[in-house]
Prior knowledge:
Structural class: mainly alpha
Strand content: under 5%
Shape: flat
Number of helices: 3
Low-confidence stretches: none
Helix content: over 70%
Number of domains: 1
Largest sheet: none
Number of strands: 0
Distance between the termini: 46 Å
Order of helices and strands: HHH
Oligomer: single chain
Amino acid sequence: xxxxxxxxxxxxxxxxxxxxxxxxxxxxxxxxxxxxxxxxxxxxxxxxxxxxxxxxxxxxxxxxxxxxxxxxxxxxxxxxxx
Length: 82
């Protein structure tokens, strides 16, 4: 079951990287970066479940705050540039 979760996360990350590179607009690239961050966070959770090691779970809060702040900053930039 854990390997199925890892396979799904790898597929999601590859789709996000594709959209990050090919995405025609900045909004597409921001959403792709958000998907990459969520995939990373989910990978940390799956690893914590698989190994029983909860040392990296505090990192989830930091990644979520950074991702949210970056998304809001880019959204404000895009709003002002139009």
